[in-house]
Amino acid sequence: MDADRYEIIVVKYGTRRTMRSEVFLNHFIYGEPDAPIEMDYYFWVVRNDHRSILIDTGFSQVGAQRRSRSFLVDPFEAFDALGVSPLSAPTVVVTHAHYDHIGNLAAFRDSRIHLSAAEFDFWAGSGRERRQYGYSAEADELDALVDAHANGRVALFQGSSTLAPGVELIEVGGHTPGQVIVKVATHDGEVLLASDALHYYEELERDMPFVFIDDLRATYRAFDLITNIAESGVGERVVAGHDPDVLRRFAGRSHPALPALSVVIGGRE
């Protein structure tokens, strides 16, 4: 593979069933009946012959038990299968510091970790003690991130950062103070990993923000930016953070170790 072109492996490691009123902010204002909705949980691997990058680390056993979340595959089994186990010390990107995105971060004790300064500063401070914020985080997992920073393993950025040729981190905020999206150059063109700036495609298509947000105006600005990026070249290759439709939209090739729980985007056959 070329040094600046990658394949992306999307891994569905967990799932749950909830209600639309529990997912969309102020659902009642849309004037439609409540209904069940599924939410899937993913992490992403960006790789070529030169490097492997793990984007988020999923929720932990503790985080799952406290919130009644279900594993479809143990994240560590999936990490091993994809060659991004903690022992291999892959580069790790934290799109944001919620429990389902940094739940297993402490195991990657030799990895370099990248996230936005706004995200780190918020969760390293007292804001995490507020119940509305703290619900979505685990204190010991945040402490592990703070410890990694104290040990010099965390790289912080503002605005945007070129992590490697063909991989751009873009800070958008909204869902959290420093929510990040990731633009990746693949052999099939650019792909945008929206993470939780876009939980569901419906959020963008119907202008319906997710229920948990830090800044509503920034959330809408993130929607606009994602739309602009799509229109300027990414096209339909936008990967939402929790939508069950992701594996269907990008159906075709899966990773042989996780045939029913993964899809490979942009790789060479």
From TrEMBL:
Its cofactor is Zn(2+). Keywords: Hydrolase, Metal-binding, Zinc. Residues 40-242 form the Metallo-beta-lactamase domain. Belongs to the metallo-beta-lactamase superfamily. This is N-acyl homoserine lactonase family protein. It comes from Lysinimonas soli. The lineage of its organism: Bacteria, Bacillati, Actinomycetota, Actinomycetes, Micrococcales.
